[in-house]
Amino acid sequence: MFASSGEETINNLHKTAEHINRSSSGVPIMKRSLVAVLGIALSIPLWGQQNQPAQAKIQTLIITGQNGHDWRGTTPILRKALEDTNRFTVRVTEEFRGGGPETLAPYELVVLNYFELRKPELRWGERADNALLEFLKSGKGVLIYHFSVAAFDGWSEYEKLCAGNWRPNNGHHSAAHDFTVDVKDADHPVMRGLKLSFPQPNDELYANLRWQPADQYHVLATAWDDHSLYQGKAKQPIPGNGIHQPMLWTVQYGKGRAFVTVLGHDVPAVQTPAFATTFTRGAEWAATGSVTLPVPPGMAQ
Predict the structure, then answer these.
(1) Domain 58-299 has CATH 3.40.50.880
(2) 271, exposed or middle or buried, with CB in 10 Å at 0-12, 13-18, 19+?
(3) I need a labelling partner for 240 at 20 to 30 A (CA). Which of 104, 135, 172, 250 fits?
(4) Is the pLDDT of residue 42 over 70?
(5) What pLDDT score does 52 carry?
């Protein structure tokens, strides 16, 4: 469109110059002025002809294949949520055991939907473990999804990059229910422009995780864990009426960024506006350090 407009303008200038040359031969100054204008026009780049490069898509790998939750149901939806933004190209592997740096080299973001069920034979192995850590340290991104915070008990570096983990005697929830997510850092790129609170229907609200020191992670949003919902059946301490529990947070690990969401227990829970919006924006931030994805109208302030 711009190229056609520029060419039309130049053609019109040519025609005007020829007309003045024919009808106003006694006014050479006017002719010379117009020729000068024409020369300037010809020297100006036709910006529309210079196609602006499309924003490169974020190369993403989802690692899954084992989990105590429905990874077969949720993984395709996680993939679709990312790809529907037109910001990500996503591949899925169900086997990362034996992986290494070459496995992760093509990617900028790794999404973990994985829990090895505390079975040693389902651990990735030292080479794959180190590949993930070096991937993140180098400045790339990792997104920890929901029950992946329960993975790899005893792997201290994994616990550092998660910051909060589900561990024996640390990690429980009441029955799935509707709750409200409250934004705690509205200026963070992931949360910027979102409503200051928004609903998450019929999901698990994780509580009492085992946390790294408070200066090792940054909470973006919380939800109120109503202790009355445990109906006296809680197996872990629930002091008082309730506690605000982190739902979304970030971790700086080396030069890289980790985004953690404990929302999204099952297929319906990963299809809510709250989950899809924060998941995709958190993924972009983890990979790039910024967020360009627009906030959907229903989630916007």
Answers:
(1) yes
(2) middle
(3) 250
(4) no
(5) 52
